């Protein structure tokens, strides 16, 4: 418990830079925030690489891709960013994506040399169609996986994605997620453009569900279990 004695900072504080919520004036919380803040700043800082694979250029930044054949230093950066994304989205840490043959990571690099968005995609063989709450899955559509998820219908899918904003709140509402999705559609498979029905979202958060519905123009978008 904390006593409110009129101090300048009191109760839960949301850091505008790293997004961490901590208790002001609480020594342990402030120490944890300071540690995470330093890690966050180091992780999102990006001065550029000599040989970048740039997919798209914009006035406010660029999108680069890191594929399986990328140098080790690029994969190391991806793992740092992935750990940060996992923490932000509530995923269990420890699942490395390096080494997956069809895995590609798209990073949005802002004009001020920061990683402002991340989209990680990998090849899969099946996805699950989200069924609106008013509908119930038919008996032939249910299996152990769909029962675990709830109202979803199993169908085939060839690509998956997950994305997250990084950086301060000033980077929100800049269509970074939409631009990363478009980069995925046009550059994941050489010589072809992915259809929306070829893309599944991994365990979307409430905000992610709203985005997936808006981008795919249907509440019955695809999902899959990220492993």
Automatic annotation (TrEMBL):
Domain N-acetyltransferase ESCO zinc-finger: from-to ranges: 1-39
GO cellular component, one term: nucleus
Location of the N-acetyltransferase ESCO acetyl-transferase domain: 169-224
Major localisation: nucleus
Domain of life, source organism: Eukaryota
Keyword Cell cycle: yes
Name listed for the protein in its UniProt record: Putative N-acetyltransferase ESCO2 isoform X1
Species, as recorded: Stichopus japonicus (Sea cucumber)
């Amino acid at each position: 418990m904390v006593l409110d004695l009129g101090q300048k900072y009191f109760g839960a504080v949301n850091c505008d830079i790293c997004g961490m919520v901590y208790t002001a004036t609480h020594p342990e919380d402030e120490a944890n925030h300071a540690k995470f803040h330093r890690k966050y700043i180091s992780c999102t800082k990006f001065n550029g690489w000599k040989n970048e694979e740039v997919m798209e250029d914009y006035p406010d930044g660029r999108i680069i891709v890191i594929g399986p054949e990328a140098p080790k230093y690029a994969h190391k950066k991806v793992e740092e960013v992935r750990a940060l994304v996992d923490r932000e989205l509530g995923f269990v840490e420890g699942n490395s994506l390096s080494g997956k043959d069809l895995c590609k990571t798209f990073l949005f690099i802002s004009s001020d040399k920061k990683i402002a968005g991340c989209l990680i995609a990998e090849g899969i063989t099946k996805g699950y169609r989200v069924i609106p709450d008013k509908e119930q899955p038919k008996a032939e559509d249910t299996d152990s996986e769909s029962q675990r998820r709830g109202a979803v219908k199993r169908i085939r899918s060839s690509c998956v994605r997950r994305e997250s904003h990084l950086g301060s709140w000033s980077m929100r509402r800049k269509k970074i997620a939409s631009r990363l999705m478009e980069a995925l559609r046009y550059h994941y498979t050489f010589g072809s453009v992915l259809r929306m029905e070829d893309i599944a979202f991994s365990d979307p958060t409430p905000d992610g569900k709203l985005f997936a519905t808006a981008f795919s123009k249907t509440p019955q978008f695809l999902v899959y279990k990220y492993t």
